[in-house]
Amino acid sequence: MSEMSETELMLRGYGLTTAQFYYRMPDYRNVLNTFVWQDYDLAPDHPKLFEFIEFWQDTIEGPLHSVQYTHRKMLSSGEWQNMVGEFTYH
Prior knowledge:
Blueprint: H1 6-11, E1 15-24, E2 32-41, H2 47-59, E3 64-72
Antiparallel strand pairs: 1-2, 1-3
């Protein structure tokens, strides 16, 4: 399956999820650093976000302290209309 465009994702119910990861530096455990991640995801389960969290825990040396996220559905039912028409401007 080919990569869907942002518009196709929004029409399928995806919204923009932004997450801020707080993690400890591997060599300086008392230092918290941040990383911002953003992708189109499906609420309320957020499969892409949790996939990224699993990737982080399996691959990145800096252990996670916490994650804050927000989700914004760009289109909702009733907001998208296919309009076909023509008007004349004099």
